[in-house]
Amino acid sequence: MALMAPNPSSQPPLWVTSGDPRAAVWKMVQGVYRFSALYAMARLDLAGWLSDGPRTAAELASSCGARQDQLTRLLRALTAMGFLEAADDTFALTEYGATLNSRLPDSMRWAVLSAGEPGSWNAMTGVTEAVRTGVAPFPEAYGSMYGYLERNPEAGHDFDAFMASRSKDAAAALARQYDFSGIRTVTDVGGGVGLVLATLMTAHPALQGTVFDLKEVAQRAEQFLAVRNLTDRCQFVAGDYFDSVPEGSDLYLLASIVHNHGREDAIRVLRQVRAAMRPDSRLLALDVLLPQDGRPHFGFDLDIRMMAVFNGGQERDQVEYAALLSEADLRVTRVEALPPTPLSMIEATPTF
């Protein structure tokens, strides 16, 4: 390609200089416009259509079922943002745009689709009311997140793919960093289709596993485990972790579960896990821990999303997290970051 697109780090409008404090606000406002274009790129799967090489606007319009004149406007904006590069009327992916190729195992397409999905997007506009009232806008409008995903298969598929891609790096880091010697059985509480547990079991062949989640997940989980040849070592058990948890495992895994709940519900979940544990069992939670010094961190951004999507959902710092565990008769025995992800692993054992 003759013309290389700029880096997609946004620039403020030309009438605001970079030293002007208004520039920071303009970048945020522009971010809304730019994300809308990026969402359209992801929904139309432009990265997929361009993954085999450059194509014209007419060819892309035919492939993705769009009007050529409107698509050209989108392609022009994406080129200016740095996700495409252009020569004449031919467009190609840059290294940034290529990250939205859904053929890649770490594709960012699913993160964009999940964030821009109408229910999720609309909920974010209700953060002001959530701050005023303490009521999350998403369940107010749509009911529970997981019920909504069941009723909207496209959104459910995109969410599952996003969670799988987001969990992959954390699961791999956990498999490397945590000492699984002496652990034979693992129960993944609220484990979805079982991606984290499957990663651990593949890395540590001696492990036997149980994925515990709502019955609605059963078919997808069983298919997921079968494809990975884990059905002889791993079972799916249906249930609600507010009511009970399978008993007697060496290790109980809660990956991005506690942050979905406010204090009372989080303690309810942890108490059910504690009731299922033996005296020598361990609990291992994976969650974002907010820095206590207030430095910039992904967790503060995610905390705003939690406010919009889950009643009571929130990110916590290490002291707050330990307090929840203590209320459930569990004590923290180890905390360790899981780079390159923003997650940490928090290990806890029974206090009696």
Automatic annotation (TrEMBL):
GO function terms (MF aspect):
methyltransferase activity
Q: Is this entry keyworded Transferase?
A: yes
Q: From which domain of life does this come?
A: Bacteria
Q: Which UniProt keywords apply?
A: Methyltransferase, S-adenosyl-L-methionine, Transferase
Give the matching Pfam families.
Answer: Dimerisation, Methyltransf_2
InterPro entries hit by this protein: COMT-like, COMT_C, COMT_dimerisation, SAM-dependent_MTases_sf, WH-like_DNA-bd_sf, WH_DNA-bd_sf
What GO terms describe the biological role, i.e. biological process, of this protein? methylation
Residues in O-methyltransferase C-terminal domain copies:
128-328
User: What name goes with this protein?
Assistant: Methyltransferase
Q: Does the keyword Transferase apply?
A: yes
Please state every residue range assigned to the domain named O-methyltransferase dimerisation: 26-100
